[in-house]
Amino acid sequence: xxxxxxxxxxxxxxxxxxxxxxxxxxxxxxxxxxxxxxxxxxxxxxxxxxxxxxxxxxxxxxxxxxxxxxxxxxxxxxxxxxxxxxxxxxxxxxxxxxxxxxxxxxxxxxxxxxxxxxxxxxxxxxxxxxxxxxxxxxxxxxxxxxxxxxxxxxxxxxxxxxxxxxxxxxxxxxxxxxxxxxxxxxxxxxxxxxxxxxxxxxxxxxxxxxxxxxxxxxxxxxxxxxxxxxxxxxxxxxxxxxxxxxxxxxxxxxxxxxxxxxxxxxxxxxxxxxxxxxxxxxxxxxxxxxxxxxxxxxxxxxxxxxxxxxxxxxxxxxxxxxxxxxxxxxxxxxxxxxxxxxxxxxxxxxxxxxxxxxxxxxxxxxxxxxxxxxxxxxxxxxxxxxxxxxxxxxxxxxxxxxxxxxxxxxxxxxxxxxxxxxxxxxxxxxxxxxxxxxxxxxxxxxxxxxxxxxxxxxxxxxxxxxxxxxxxxxxxxxxxxxxxxxxxxxxxxxxxxxxxxxxxxxxxxxxxxxxxxxxxxxxxxxxxxxxxxxxxxxxxxxxxxxxxxxxxxxxxxxxxxxxxxxxxxxxxxxxxxxxxxxxxxx
Length: 586
Known about the structure:
Oligomer: single chain
Structural class: alpha/beta
Protein name: Single-stranded-DNA-specific exonuclease RecJ
CATH architecture of the largest domain: Alpha-Beta Complex
Distance between the termini: 25 Å
Radius of gyration: 24 Å
Keywords: Coiled coil, Exonuclease, Hydrolase, Nuclease
Mean pLDDT: 93
Number of helices: 20
CATH class of the largest domain: Alpha Beta
Domain DDH: 95-245
Family: Belongs to the RecJ family.
CATH topology of the largest domain: inorganic pyrophosphatase (n-terminal core)
InterPro entries: DDH_dom, DHH_sf, DHHA1_dom, RecJ, RecJ_OB, SSDNA_exonuclease_RecJ
Number of strands: 18
Helix content: 40-55%
Largest sheet: 5 strands, parallel
């Protein structure tokens, strides 16, 4: 906590009511030392220093090599057995089913296996449960039905806690490739590969399911090579791994960073029909980056599982038919628009309820009748972002509520939810550090939320000021160039556990301001010496920011946000994604 120190640029309350917090003296010293040692721009050094990179490792960090960072698949327990059973099914032409979760991580994981199998001349049955009718993970009826017609069932992004459903798969072998928190015992499967099993050392706990599946395919190819055979090109599949990693908000550290960096390069080749179609309906005109994966492609893939047909996202990602991909992408785009409308209604109601309860508790939560289970997770994300606290949002249907939660850095929500389930306060619950799902009886709701708040408080939830906005430093318009942004991007990709740097342009005047759409604001600004810079602020008119900057009256402001390259009509220009502002003179 830095609340006792002086606010950055003396901004104790911005136009959004936030206190600005600078990088700290130690980070600034390290950044300056790195600049002297490496000759890199100060903005790049600030980002590297914040991420704890020492000067002698700077160049290597800016060019991560997958071959240097990819772990030995054998580091994960049951990996050898999982790959061997998978290859046995391939060699013996056995019938394979893939049981996948309905989110992006599940869809990309399934697509990886389907793509690999297709290249080997094999097929698999895809099964994705309906979010509302079946809920998360394997269920007994579905597993029994799949087992009746298949020899091997591979559960991806689910299955670690599914003891009874896996036991119901009589007559078929089951392999689990997952990353959700494991319990004290594992289900009776041929293999349960999961970096978050209780008997793992946690070194690879940051992998999402797509990363685990990729490592299993690395091991499968290795076993094939040992027998003199050759497997498919795995490097060409990294676009799927990157999408799953970013969309599942997996920490962009270690091997995840290299997987996403390389995956973005693969994606830029536009070779996968599903991702090409999705990029086109998303109107993604620039080279893919982690923002596009998380906020343009990911939500559309998820839309099928949230409010449409559960397997639509996985089918889109795995198809090799261009026309089919285009049709599915258009349908997902429509569903995403519907999802946004539903989300906006639930978000307004949830925020009002949470505000009435108070936003300064360790846990922010809301529950409502008939709130769509497909959007409660997104709304929980919005509450978390607005308050800097773990958030839970629950939709009730009768006496049973299904909810979803999102956490903040350093607070393990999944473990706490699992503890609540073990204590009998939840019907069921599980997840990982940053996200979790739960089912709760109406008469236990208040007790469960009170207990969860207790558990999260012990981990430090609620310690950080909800209004703190962390900033990396000051930048002048004359220094903000395309070249600088490209160099900063090399310190990425940015996302979970690796936030993109946020800069302040101090004491600037707004030369142009226009409302765009329903609630967005477009401006350009200058300090009077450097060039004008365009800025876009999404949702500006949902806060005081929009009206104040639109009607600026010639006043000067400090503007805070993240730099990006805006590609339009074949031209590239610097753009600030504006997040906050403060009067330049109080």
